[in-house]
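User: Can you predict the 3D structure for this chain?
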Amino acid sequence: MSDNKDITPHDGASRQLATATAGSVLAMVLEAARDPNIDAAKVETMANLAMRMQDRELEAEFNRAKIAALMQMPSIGKKGEIRNKEGKVQSRYSKWEDIHRIIKPILDSHGLALSFNVGNVVAGQNTLVTVQPILQHRNGFKEVGGEMSLPIDTTGSKNGTQGAGSAASYGKRHSAKAMLNIVEHNEDDDGASAGNGPTRRPLNELQEILIADGNAAAKKGAASYEQWFKERSAAERGWLAMEGYHEELKQAAGV
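Assistant: Here is the predicted structure, written as structure tokens:
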């Protein structure tokens, strides 16, 4: 039989499970534990159910906070430079300190914290630096990202310690970008382009999806768009308004 059918109905617990929260189920467990006529195995089943429900509630709260934070992630400028032997800029990258400075206030505002497990593994005759991102909510739920294995950076005149630190910084940059869907842009993209004023910041994947959904709603008319905008989260509505997309979509919908 299923767990629900296996739970005694003496105190009406089975009839309440469908709409109960984890907290209310735990209260039911405590009440049932005081009843000497209830089988201990059934109380344990109820306790396990409450724990599973609690885990789902914590995960749902984490997901809401993460989505809200991702919607606020801006495009980050590439201030780091890699130069060739002639001193010319070969490529650009976002420095970890710049990424951290920008994302931390956003994560803080949603009760999230990003940390990393940094270690090392031996592969053949080489020692690799390992970096694994961890995004945790203040409620205790956490998401653990994939582990990156990186060779120690031997460029320039770095010693072993400096090379390991450089590799760890590289791993933090790229694992954070993957976990938080961070978009980068070259620093010169921030200025006016051929006298046409500042360019709009690149969108991350969630922002692109949001704009596409908004456009689809706007094509159906004013009422459709207004209903769509009303159903968005506070973070989504704020971002749309702040970036000017809400006004554009309203015009497209004929509002």
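The first strand starts at residue 76 and ends at 78. The CA atoms of residues 128 and 151 lie 5 Å apart.
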